[in-house]
Design a protein that fits this description.
Blueprint (H helix, E strand, L loop, with lengths): L3 E7 L5 H12 L7 E6 L5 H12 L4 E5 L6 H11 L4 E4 L5 E2 L3 H11 L5 E4 L1 E4 L6 E5 L5 H7 L12 E3 H6 L10 H11 L4 E4 L4 E4 L2 H7 L2 H16 L5 H16 L2 H12 L2
Helix pairs in contact: 9-10
């Protein structure tokens, strides 16, 4: 199968144990990566650095690059996309878990359809142990369904995707947002006629706990998402009505109690 790179970022507040689990899940793929590019978003502590050093000492193809200061996820990912030596890049977050066959399945889809630009998958959400499943996020499967879904919601689970480096660069890469960089990237790539699909099987485990709700309820998250969706409307990606519905829903999540957010998330968004 075609060679591919893994792209991860890590910064000083990341949990070393979570990072170790996430990194190993990519190194232990049934179809191993040609390289794992780790962008250190500013200085990291000794524990996080030791996770990287131990894998390099064992001979794993880990490439590390440190930004001088914390620049944010978008800037870190853009650096990683540029550094990656392969056309196919598999994203991975520093606190999640990829099932062993994830990348092999995605590579098979690219082999079947060389015109594909993005292949993602559904996820199971876990808390604590990866076996403690607390939810699931299904995503649209076909290219047509993805384009329709993207008018209001993200059609991909960001850390699950494998995408073409050339397609990401052609769309302008990640924007300099502190939150929701992936939402903006999907809109730009879809406006650029990217060809996409998602695998129905949940080949990924996403860490989900109380802090997840808090992060998504922040004003920074709310303001950024509304700004991105406003820009999408202004560029003709979606209608004004679609923009209003997204903005209203996001404001409700921010204003109303966390219990309401949990209800919406579990009973509506995860159906």
């Amino acid at each position: 199968m075609e060679k591919y790179s893994v792209l991860m970022t890590v910064y000083t507040n990341d949990d070393p144990g979570y990072f170790s689990l996430a990194l190993d899940s990519m190194l232990d793929q049934t179809c191993p990566p040609d390289e794992v590019v780790i962008i250190k978003d500013g200085p990291v502590g000794e524990e996080l650095q030791s996770v990287i050093d131990e894998r390099i000492a064992k001979g794993f193809p880990v490439v590390q690059y440190r930004l001088e200061k914390n620049a944010g996820l978008g800037a870190a990912l853009n650096t990683g996309v540029e550094i990656a030596r392969n056309e196919l890049i598999a994203r991975m977050d520093s606190d999640d878990y990829s099932c062993p066959g994830r990348c092999e399945r995605q590579l098979a889809e690219f082999a079947k359809n060389p015109g594909l630009d993005i292949v993602g998958c559904s996820v199971l959400e876990f808390s604590g142990s990866i076996d403690n499943i607390v939810g699931e996020r299904r995503v649209p499967l076909t290219n047509e369904e993805i384009y329709k879904f993207a008018k209001k919601r993200d059609p991909f689970n960001h850390p699950t995707v494998m995408y073409r480096k050339s397609a990401v660069l052609a769309a302008g890469g990640y924007s300099d947002y502190r939150k929701n960089q992936d939402t903006d990237l999907w809109i730009k790539m879809l406006r650029n006629n990217a060809v996409c699909m998602n695998i129905e099987e949940p080949l990924f485990r996403f860490r989900f706990d109380e802090n997840t709700y808090k992060k998504r309820r922040s004003w920074t998250n709310t303001k950024t998402l509304i700004s991105i969706r406003y820009k999408a409307w202004k560029t003709g990606f979606n209608t004004f009505g679609e923009f209003l519905s997204v903005a209203a829903a996001q404001l409700c999540v921010f204003i109303l109690p966390t219990g309401f957010q949990k209800f919406v998330y579990r009973k509506i968004l995860r159906r």
